[in-house]
User: Fold this.
Amino acid sequence: VRGGHLHNEVLIAPLEAAARRLGARTHLEHPVSVGSRTLFLDLAIFIGLHRIAVEAELSPARIRNDLRKAFAFRAHELWIVAPNAQRARVFRRALKVPAASSTGTRVFVFTQGQAAQRIIDSFPFRS
Amino acid sequence: MASVSLPPHLKNLLYAQRHRLLEDDLGRAIVRLINLGIDDEFTLQELAGRVRHHEISQAFAGPFMTPGLARGDVILGFDQNGNFVRIPIAYLNGHSLTLGNSGAAKTTKTRFLVPQIAPRVRGLWLFDFRKREFAVLRPVLQSMGIELLIVPTRALRFNPVQPPPDTDPRRFAPRAADILVHVLGLPARATKLLHATILRLYGEMDIFAGSQRYPTLFHIRDAVVADKSANPPARQALVDSLDPVLASLGPEVLGYHIGWTTRDLAERHIVFDLSDAAEVEKDLAVNCLLESEFTYRIAHGVSNPVMDLYIACDEAASLVSASQGSSGLTQRMGLIRGTGIGVDLSVQSGDIAQTILSNTANKFLGRCGSARDYDLVGGAIGLNGEQRQWLSTNLRPGLFVAQVAEGQWRHPLVLEIPELHFPSQVMIPAEDLGDLARLPLVRADLSGVPAPGGPVRKMPVLQSAPVQAATSDAEIRFLDAIAKNPNIPSHRYAKLAGMGPRRAIELRRNLIGRGFLREHSVNIAARGRAAIVLELLPSAVKLLSTAGLYPVGPTP
Assistant:
């Protein structure tokens, strides 16, 4: 995973570990074809047929790029993980998503703790 | 002069001619009959009927005349009565200026025109300066069989000092210098320095002998830095202004002896998405593209051809501003008139250079927030007092007062632009270069050129706090606790390191200040306040490994 300690070790790694522990298939740096280019999702989580794209962001600059990747990945959900609630609010303001994308991707902005909680909630009988 | 009392049918004839009511076959027959003195009952009734019908519709139309613009291949919009206002596409060759504040539907007007213009021109350049406004037209043009390429700033491949094809480099050098001075906001003295440097590099790189290994901006910076005899303030200003641009756009965008030529671009339909670029980068890209194409056409003596390139610039304030000095566009606007380029500029305020006002024959005035803006364009399109008064109380989003460039009807007219709806579910790619990606480029070898940012004079360099060896056992214990228990809230390290919370806070601040630790604010839990998470920096890892407490290198 490209990125610094905060991005890789604090935001992404615990989510990947939690998802794997609960039985989901995970893939770090998951390649996605966007047009003629190959881009990489920070983390792809597969829960059965449900596909979740997880992108950790420290600034809102690359959110548009995250959307492109998630739509190309045909993700059911895109989680944009912010380090804290203050940044999450900034991301939500910056997020201008069409009402519904053609792929039906639902977009969420979570803090790291909220994302971890959602993983646990996705497996109600195992956690 | 004594007033002449005319017979009613002549008054009707004059009225009808003034309002272009007799331009069909029957109308022309009526004029001919009256001129020949054949004023039979049918003729006079037909004439009177047309005049009466027009007078009634005019009575509901406010102070503006119902426009006599019903023919042409481009629909501008609707008049007060809901009829199409049409013009021939050639009128757009006279350039257009749209003034209206945010939300006046300037962009909608351009979006409405573009699908009509696109099939009729060889090239279409749409510049998005603030928001991605034009990319939504891609599916619309696609359904018409037209490929609309989307080129973001970082995908551009151009060389600002590459002369257009078949252009004398000696004549292009001062233009390139002028553009760079304007774009980079350099002092006048820098123009001479740049001009001389470009010519010198052209000479050194055998451009005058026919070589096409044109210097890049990186070469220019290098040459200016090396020129110790140059005027120091001009040299320093040039380097200071050029460095951020070179660092930001980098060799990927600017590092080409031969980049894209506007000859290639002028044959394609392109959205230049400059919305994410810095102001200086936008100015550089736009001015270079426009200047290169203008120079090419003027140098080739292209005169009054059919319009084959339509350029629309949304939010073009920086290009047309009177207060920010002259840009390449303001200087060339008069010259490019009649070179087959139609330029459509839209701005929010009346800060418009005189050359732009003088040389944009089509004018569209939308809702403004300032009386000065109404007066500026209102005066230019010949509004009377009543019409100006009408503007401030009646213009709303989508409603414009306009004047068209050519033809016999040059009265101001009211124009309504229909509301456009684009499907929200269609994803527009951020980049689609199409066959532009296959255009031949000659990349410059910049290995011998110092990277931008190298100092010309001794500059104070900000450095992180000097790292000092941590000697106390408490500090080592604290760092060791972090290494063994990473990414937990910082308050838990006090207990893990065997010390009190106040001592732990003191140590933490001390270690952060000395460059051993970095702290991040992270919401680790689903609720509650953000915790402070500590990151060990390489100096701390080295210290721990020296003490035999931490493996150096990748963790197994």
About this structure: Chain A has a mean pLDDT of 86. The interface with chain B takes residues 5-6, 9-11, 14, 34-36, 64-65, 68, 71, 83-86, 88, 98-102, 111-114, 116-117 of chain A (CB under 8 Å). Chain A has four helices and five strands. Helices of chain A lie at 5-21, 63-72, 85-94, 112-122.
